[in-house]
Predict the structure.
Amino acid sequence: MKGVILAAGQGTRLSANNGTRHKVLLRVGGKAIIDYALESFSSVGITDLAIVIGHQGNAVREWVGDGSKHGLNIRYVFNHEYMWGNALSLYAVRSFTDDDPFILSMADHMFSPSLLQRVIDMNSSTSVLAVDSRPDPRHITEGTRVLVNDVGLITSIGKDLPSWDGIDAGVFRLVPAIFDSITDIVSEKSTEYQLSQAITRMINQGHPLEACDITGCFWQDVDTWEDLKLVRQTFEGAGRWQNSRKA
């Protein structure tokens, strides 16, 4: 199985505080934020990765290199239209995935190898999303909510759902149907094309998205200055997963 990491966006909510450096290159526990995703992929044996770059793409490429320091084989894909939404960044890797299921994560999400392993181990032929069913208050305030039915399928996803069962932890196993859904939303000529739109379209077109309960595993998306301070406190010192509050 291959992996995809989206690292093309600008990260505007952190830009006022971090100067000119790409936010996924900011240091946490002596490493860059993106290093934690790379280490988790390597730990579970997913070694063929595509990183989609855009904003400050050369800086990301220079830091990560060919991936060999993490035991990875990395291909870079540049998305010239990254400012129009992360669905276009995902669409840019459609040839890389070879019409097979693949793992998707965001470069600004830090998640433990145990979380990623749970997603991989799901015995399912459908798409899967890591869902925290007992999130902390910060995740509830900032995160994307999901509604899960009684057979474990996600029926709705969005930040403003009035009724919900968990929080999207930002790691997916996706089937190729996602690319058809992105094609559909792009054909409607909107001002932006977000992954959440494509996921909703995919569900509505009859391609299920199953919830994988990753409660108890560490994860944190780093969108704000407060998020950055939190993960720096969590990983203070050697920057190892064992220092985090969850496995």
Summary: The chain is about 30% helix and 25% strand.
